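ok new one. same drill as before - structure tokens go in, u give me an amino acid for every spot. 98 of them this time. try not to just spam alanines like last time pls lmao
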């Protein structure tokens, strides 16, 4: 069974099978600035999953930490107010329509 963690700002993380966390969704998110943590309880966050922030209409800025290597398909789909994304140097793959 995969472990799921929900942060106090409504971000949902699940284990990705590599011993790391993946941002997999949100819970009633109304933040204008979303800052993804580099780790949770000492475990690295390395991915933004497919559809992770889908429909986060209020989000204007996403800050991704060093260590993020993958952004899934449609990860920012429906983020109509999004105008700035901070991409780390560690990023290796960006999915379709992200």
């Amino acid at each position: 069974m995969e472990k799921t963690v929900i942060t106090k700002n409504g971000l949902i993380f699940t284990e990705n099978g590599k011993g790391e966390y993946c941002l997999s969704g949100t819970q009633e998110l109304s933040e204008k600035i979303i800052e993804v943590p580099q780790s949770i309880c000492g475990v690295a966050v390395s991915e933004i999953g497919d559809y992770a922030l889908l429909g986060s209409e209020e989000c204007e800025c996403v800050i991704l930490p060093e260590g993020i290597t993958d952004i899934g398909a449609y990860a920012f789909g429906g983020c109509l107010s999004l105008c700035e994304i901070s991409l780390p140097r560690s990023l290796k793959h960006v999915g379709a329509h992200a």
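The chain is about 0% helix and 35% strand. and btw The radius of gyration is 12 Å.
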